[in-house]
Amino acid sequence: MRLINCQLLNIRLHSDFSMKFAPGSTLIGGSNETGKSTLIEALHKALFLKASATGSPVESLRSRIHLGHPTVQLTFEAGNEIYT
Prior knowledge:
Layout: E1 2-11, E2 14-20, H1 36-48, H2 56-59, E3 71-78, E4 81-83
Antiparallel strand pairs: 1-2, 1-3, 3-4
């Protein structure tokens, strides 16, 4: 499996954040409190929770400053097929 891109909407500090992943490897860096760990946690939940998940796993991603439902959209390639 290869990650292609992701978009975070209304997740903690991120109102609308998009990121493309390099074909080889991608380095995520930045200053403290800029959302690096939030990005990793959101990716983890998108990959390993059911799309219909509710409750504390979803609520833990909810932004206190941006209104709306927390949403993670992930595009990846697996077995020569692309999924979103």
